[in-house]
Amino acid sequence: MGDWISVLLLILVGLVLIYLELLFVPGTTILGLIGLGLCVTGIYLSYTSLGSSTGNWVLAGTLMLSIVGLVFSFRSKSWHRFSLKTANNSKVNEDYYSGLQIEMRGIALSDLKPIGKGEFNHKTYEVRSSGEHIASGSSIKITKVEGNKIIVETITTS
Prior knowledge:
The protein is α+β, with helices and mostly antiparallel strands. It has helices at about 1-25, 30-50, 50-75, and strands at about 105-110, 115-120, 125-130, 140-145, 150-155. Strands 1-2-3-5-4 form a five-stranded mixed β-barrel. Strand 4 (about 140-145) and strand 5 form a beta hairpin. Helix 1 packs antiparallel against helix 2 (about 30-50) and helix 2 packs antiparallel against helix 3 (about 50-75).
């Protein structure tokens, strides 16, 4: 009688750990591996202490119980409580470039070789020149804005 109790407890605790791992812990973790180990140990004990005929029945019952549990959990929509239902469609720095206009004037905060930092309306942006070197501290103006690329040139005073 004690062998039956230990086999059933090992298998039931193993299945519970596997279901907990499936429901609450994403990926294959130690909880699922321990549950699998307990199930295998329970099946092995049923073969060694209760005989091969009983071991076959325990193996078949364990497989059926695990399949029925998975099918029931998918059909009952219990997974929907744990799934993400919304999507993030926004972008990083989406409105960061919204205040920029062509011909806007600013200052080069670093050397542009051809990429560096520029300041427009007290905000710092990564800017690029058309290929020429622009020294730090030079007055610059925006010639083109394409997405997050800001093309600038030096302001020549005559």
